[in-house]
């Protein structure tokens, strides 16, 4: 086997693709700042017990683990930056007011998260800490949709769900609470026969509600059906009202779909959840939701909601960027030449000096002008090529 081969689902990013990714990163981070989000940069690796604090079992399975050669303790390479940012809010910033944070950086996964997915996503995201109201959820959803719009996606589908529904339905049934993890698995799979078998001994109201959930999916009208078939428990009514508000705020900006049995992130999230889909990608391009309980693991419970997406996956869907017009210049140390090149670069022009004996070959740049010495022999002028 050649020693330059990379592991499966790990790849180099070549110039034109790297430029797309970097321009998306800058565009989104600059937009986050316009909303008042502050940039943080968590470390790539941490002690494993710190990295896994507040994370679910899925994150544990996705995390690369190694032994620290200095301390002998187990380290983990981050598979997700969300809990790291929650730690920063809880322990390093320790603010009493609302805090808006954003981040961008590579994460590593032991296994790819979906079809054709990389094991080294470039995760970018934003989080709001300190406000439990629906206003924070609405802002995060708006920011996620705005991020995709900035990337040029206008055909976006927003899928909404809510963790609070299942928890409210089973709260009064001890047998259902005991089977919570199994119910989560069956609902995700929409396994109706499995649900009927598991819930055979439950309270009738609880059982009927659980059996109804897999069929409660569709457009915003599904919420009216849910109010008819689900018990009018306070937690159920609150969850449906929140979904209605979030769906309403997205109308006109995205196609809205609701699936009340979609519980991905159930162990991690605590309220409304969303996923964004775009044409050309079978997996969700962005995910977000409320996760109020993660801060408790760091000793400071704070309401929290946020979203993240993979810039590499997003950039792969975009067309190849046009080559940037640039200027070819000779190599030389003459003061007049250096001064002219500096002037052009200051004006935003790309000036590529040719190394002696070599031609220029770049993926990103197209030299359509050349810098030549004027007839007077003392000044440098631009000349069009071709």
UniProtKB/TrEMBL annotation:
Keywords tagged on the record: Amino-acid biosynthesis, Cytoplasm, Glycosyltransferase, Histidine biosynthesis, Transferase
Alphabetized GO MF terms: glycosyltransferase activity
Name of one Pfam family that matches: tRNA-synt_His
Membrane-crossing segments per the record: none
InterPro entries: aa-tRNA-synth_II/BPL/LPL (IPR045864), HisRS-like_core (IPR041715), HisRS/HisZ (IPR004516), HisZ (IPR004517)
UniProt entry tagged with the keyword Amino-acid biosynthesis: yes
Subcellular location: Cytoplasm
Entry keyword Amino-acid biosynthesis: yes
Pathway: Amino-acid biosynthesis; L-histidine biosynthesis; L-histidine from 5-phospho-alpha-D-ribose 1-diphosphate: step 1/9
Residue stretches making up the Class II Histidinyl-tRNA synthetase (HisRS)-like catalytic core domain: 10-314
Family in the record: Belongs to the class-II aminoacyl-tRNA synthetase family. HisZ subfamily.
Note from the entry: This function is generally fulfilled by the C-terminal part of HisG, which is missing in some bacteria such as this one.
PANTHER family: HISTIDINE--TRNA LIGASE (PTHR11476:SF7), HISTIDYL-TRNA SYNTHETASE (PTHR11476)
Subunit structure comment from the entry: Heteromultimer composed of HisG and HisZ subunits.
Function, as annotated: Required for the first step of histidine biosynthesis. May allow the feedback regulation of ATP phosphoribosyltransferase activity by histidine.
Matches recorded under HAMAP family: HisZ (MF_00125)
Protein name (Swiss-Prot/TrEMBL): ATP phosphoribosyltransferase regulatory subunit
Organism, as annotated: Janthinobacterium kumbetense
């Amino acid at each position: 086997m050649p020693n330059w081969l990379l592991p499966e689902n790990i790849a180099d990013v070549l110039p034109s693709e790297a430029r797309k990714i970097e321009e998306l990163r800058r565009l989104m981070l600059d937009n986050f700042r316009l909303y008042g989000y502050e940039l943080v940069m968590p470390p790539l690796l941490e002690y494993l017990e710190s990295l896994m604090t507040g994370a679910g079992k899925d994150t544990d399975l996705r995390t690369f683990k190694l032994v620290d050669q200095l301390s002998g303790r187990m380290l983990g390479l981050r598979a997700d930056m969300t809990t790291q940012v929650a730690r920063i809010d809880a322990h390093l910033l320790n603010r009493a007011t609302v805090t808006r944070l954003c981040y961008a950086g590579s994460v590593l996964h032991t296994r790819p998260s979906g079809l054709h997915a990389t094991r080294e996503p470039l995760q970018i995201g934003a989080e709001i800490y300190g406000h439990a109201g629906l206003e924070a959820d609405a802002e995060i959803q708006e920011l996620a949709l705005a991020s995709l719009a900035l990337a040029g996606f206008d055909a976006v589908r927003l899928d909404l769900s809510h963790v609070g529904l299942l928890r409210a339905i089973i709260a009064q049934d001890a047998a259902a609470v005991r089977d919570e993890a199994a119910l989560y698995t069956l609902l995700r799979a929409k396994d109706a026969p499995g649900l009927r078998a598991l819930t055979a001994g439950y309270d009738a109201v609880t059982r009927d509600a659980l059996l109804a959930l897999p069929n409660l999916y569709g457009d915003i009208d599904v919420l009216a059906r849910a109010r008819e078939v689900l018990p009018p428990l306070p937690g159920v009514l609150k969850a449906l009202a929140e979904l209605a508000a979030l769906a309403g705020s997205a109308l006109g900006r995205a196609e809205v779909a609701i699936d009340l049995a979609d519980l991905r992130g159930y162990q991690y999230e605590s309220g409304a959840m969303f996923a964004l889909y775009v044409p050309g990608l079978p997996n969700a391009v962005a995910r977000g939701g409320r996760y109020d309980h993660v801060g408790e693991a760091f000793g400071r419970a704070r309401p929290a909601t946020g979203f993240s997406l993979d810039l590499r996956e997003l950039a792969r869907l975009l067309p190849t960027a046009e080559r940037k017009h640039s200027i070819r210049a000779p190599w030389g140390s003459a003061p007049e030449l250096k001064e002219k090149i500096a002037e052009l670069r200051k004006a935003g022009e790309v000036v590529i000096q040719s190394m002696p004996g070599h031609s220029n070959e770049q993926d990103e740049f197209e030299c359509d002008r050349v810098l030549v010495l004027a007839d007077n022999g003392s000044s440098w002028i631009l000349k069009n090529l071709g």
